[in-house]
Design goal:
Elements (H helix, E strand, L loop, with lengths): L3 E7 L13 E6 L2 E5 L5 H8 L8 E3 L5 H4 L2 H10 L6 E4 L5 H8 L10 E3 L6 E6 L4 E6 L7 E6 L3 E4 L1 H6 L5 H9 L1 E4 L2 E4 L4 E4 L3 E5 L6 H7 L4 E5 L7 H7 L4 H11 L3 E5 L9 H9 L5 E4 L5 E3 L5
Parallel strand pairs: 3-4, 4-5, 5-6, 14-15, 15-16, 16-17
Antiparallel strand pairs: 1-2, 1-18, 2-3, 7-8, 8-9, 9-14, 10-13, 11-12
Helix pairs in contact: 3-4, 7-9, 9-10
Length: about 300
């Protein structure tokens, strides 16, 4: 059975707190795992959350501020220590190549795993295409070069049992029809389109440190699950603009305009003690979908298909 869920490893911005670790998020997408923004302490949070180094196929870093990347050194070394049997690909801003190399080779260790470097430059674009998804990046607005990431599943077909039954198609014939697109049945051809309907692929986006910008809107558009920073509450919007961040209300309005189904707010400033304030302001901003104020070590499932 395929699993698609977000494992939240850390939710603090800038510095960890007693209750929140630096950033870190693992997206389980069927048989793959994509680790986003491993901040300081990510390796230990992985242990606590039941995430193994073997679960990681890709690492996506939005930018090279410490709360989004200091954990790279430990994660990379753990991947090699555990002799992960598959290659791992790392995406990160090309302008931060020197930071990536410093973190990758922070101390001496034995390299046992193929770690492919695939930096992102310019305005971003398509980074990878697999059978299960297309991975894209878009440039964001932050004092240092920053990118957000988006996964889009290819559109497919949903089989309609009543139409299959009407044509007497069942068992192994269904799989054959899905593979070949047509089936000869009692003297006539039954096409896949006759017994199925279009099914839109699921969409996920990860938007960290940024002001409101075109890239953030593009990434969020039509997402089933959007993970987005909301460093500040609305009353501190001038600080958000100055330092290149979003408020809870800004993030929620962006999600509402983009038609997001499930919104996950994260990356909270240590200045705030009550997480329910983020939820309250997000609702006041008009977001009516499913809403999660992220906590360390929680798991968030992608919404079921419509």
């Amino acid at each position: 059975m395929s699993v698609r869920e977000l494992v939240v490893l850390g939710t603090a911005s800038q510095v960890p707190t007693r209750h929140r670790n630096h950033n870190g998020y693992l997206l389980r997408w069927d048989g793959e795992g994509i680790l986003f923004d491993p901040g300081e302490g990510t390796q230990r949070q992985m242990v606590r959350a039941g995430v193994a180094a073997h679960d990681i196929n890709r690492i996506c870093v939005t930018h090279f501020h410490g709360d989004h990347s200091l954990g790279l050194a430990g994660v990379v070394q753990r991947i090699n220590l555990d002799r992960v049997p598959h290659p791992v690909t790392a995406h990160y801003p090309a302008s931060g190549q020197r930071f990536f190399e410093r973190l990758r080779y922070a101390t001496a260790y034995r390299e046992t795993v193929q770690l492919a470097e695939a930096p992102v430059a310019g305005e971003g674009g398509v980074l990878a295409r697999t059978a299960g998804y297309t991975l894209e990046a878009r440039r964001l607005s932050h004092p240092v070069e920053s990118y957000g990431y988006r996964l889009t599943e290819p559109d497919g077909r949903r089989m309609l049992p009543e139409r299959l039954a009407a044509h007497g198609i069942r068992g192994p014939e269904i799989g054959r029809l899905q593979r070949e697109g047509a089936l000869e049945r009692e003297g006539h051809t039954v096409t896949l389109e006759e017994v199925s309907e279009a099914r839109r692929g699921q969409r996920f986006a990860f938007v960290m440190d940024t002001r409101l910008c075109e890239g953030a809107h593009d990434l969020a558009q039509g997402c089933d699950l959007l993970v987005i920073e909301s460093t500040f509450l609305d009353e501190d919007e001038p600080l958000a603009v100055e330092y290149g961040h979003l408020t809870a209300g800004q993030a929620a309005r962006l999600a509402a305009e983009a038609g997001v189904r499930h919104l996950v707010l994260t990356h909270f400033s240590q200045r705030y003690g009550d997480p329910t304030d983020f939820e309250r302001q997000a609702r006041a901003a008009g977001f009516e979908g499913e809403l999660t104020v992220a906590q360390d070590l929680m798991s968030v499932a992608l919404p079921k298909r419509r």
